[in-house]
Each structure stands twice: as structure tokens, then as C-alpha cells.
Amino acid sequence: LEGLSSHAVTRAYNALGMSLSRKGDQEQALDWFEKLRSHSWSAGDNWGIGQSYINAGVTLFRSGDNAEATNRYEKAEKHAREHGDDQLLSRALHNLASLKAETDPERALDLLGESQDLKEKIGDAPGLLASKMTQGIIAVNTGNLNAAEDYFRETVEKADDLDRRYMKALALSNLGSTLVDKDRPSDAISNYSDARALSEEEDLRYPLRLALKGEALARIETGDYEQADSLFSKLAELEEEAGHDQEAAIALHDQG
């Protein structure tokens, strides 16, 4: 990074952290976001400070620490409001909505509505795509599975149009889960399989974990125990590689 401008260093730190998080290395990703925050404070780079909060929140969410993820999202929201950063604010509100989708769907819809208004104002097409996914998740948690299926199918289609492969992989797994909830595990398998193939092609560890577990459980529902066993074994190997001992144990427990 020698010879780069201060803001270029900020963007490099942010990109490194995001890349590590998407590949499943959440611990190292958090380290980079801490470096990003420290560098940005020293440089007076408000954009970098905001990114350090929001992306650390995403990383903590992927690690399963929803309480700390919420803390970072709330800091991102406060920072965004103080500095008039509509894009950051829209992301923070969206991610807070995602975390409240199960426990407080009405509040989640309020947060999501404000986020969507901001995204439309700034022309954030990828952000609106994420909102569509969250609408599907909220629909699941309120028992509206038909609407959820529609939202997830739309998300898959629009993610394809925007070439958002990470989002497409997540949406395919969510669609699979919704179909299982609708007692259609056979229909779900192709979506999980597509999510798994895309995740393996792009080295997307978090979506791959979701796809492997989802497909394995769907295979059990259809009586395909041999294939389910193979998928649980792959999931356990993936968790061990990432150092997720607890998740690896859970995968092996499911396999048994």
C-alpha cells in the first residue's frame, strides 16, 4: 500500500476486509475493519469510518454474533445521520431490519421502508435488490410463504440481471428453504443445488454453507439419505477448514 493516497488506503482496507468476509474468514475480516476504522479516524475520512462500522456488522452477523452486529449497525446509522450519508444510512437501516425480521416483523418493515425510500432516492439498484430479499424473509416470518416464494424468485431473477452472484446464491437457498416449508422438498433441491454450484464456482463460503445444509435436509425429506450423508460430510469439512468447530460438530451431528 506504499505510495497510495490516504483515501486509496482506506478503500484497499475496506476491499480486503469484504473479500475475506465473503470467503468465510470472519476473524481476519474484522481485523481489517478495525485497521480501516483506525486509519480513517486518523485521516478524518468519514466514508471510511462508516464503512468500518457497517461491514464489521455484516462480518459479525456472518459469525453468528447478532448482538454485536446490531451494535455496529446502530453506530453506522448514527454516523450516517450525523454526516448526511444516505447510502450508508440505507444500508444500516436495511441490515437492522434484517435482524428484526424474525423477532419484530412490524418494526422490520418500518426500517425497511425508510431504507427503500433512500435507495430509490439515490438510485441504488443493488440495494433495492437486497430489500427484495429482506421482504421475502419478513414474509417467511409472518407465515406468508406464497409471497416469500415470489420475493425470492424475483430476487434470483434480478440478481442475475445485475450479475450479483453472492446475492443470487443466497436467494436460491432462501427459495429452497421456502419450498421445503411449503412441503415441496423435491422442488427445493434444484435451487439448493444451483446455489451450491454457484457458491463453489465463486468461492463463496457463507452461501455454500447454507446451500449444503439446506440441500442435505431436503434430501432427508425426500428419503435420499445417501446423498444427504455426503452433503453433511462436505459441510463438516467446510466448517473445519474455516475453524468453525461448533458448526462442524453440528454438521456431524446432523449427519448422524
Would you mind describing this structure in some detail?
- This protein has 256 residues and is mainly α.
- The chain has 13 helices and no strands.
- It is globular and about 60 Å long.
- Residues 247-256 have low confidence and may be disordered.
Instruction: Estimate the global geometry from the Cα principal axes.
Output: globular
Structural class, by secondary structure, is mainly alpha
Please trace the helix and strand order, writing H or E for each element.
HHHHHHHHHHHHH
> How many strands?
0
Fraction of residues in helix: over 70%
Instruction: Tell me about the largest β-sheet.
Output: none
Q: Which segments are poorly predicted (pLDDT under 50) over 5 or more consecutive residues? A: 247-256
How far apart lie the N and C ends? 48 Å
Average of pLDDT: 91
Beta-strand portion reads under 5%
Radius of gyration: 19 Å
How do the strands and helices of this protein lay out in sequence?
Layout lengths: L5 H17 L3 H18 L2 H17 L3 H18 L2 H15 L4 H18 L2 H17 L3 H18 L2 H17 L3 H18 L2 H17 L3 H17 L3 H11 L1
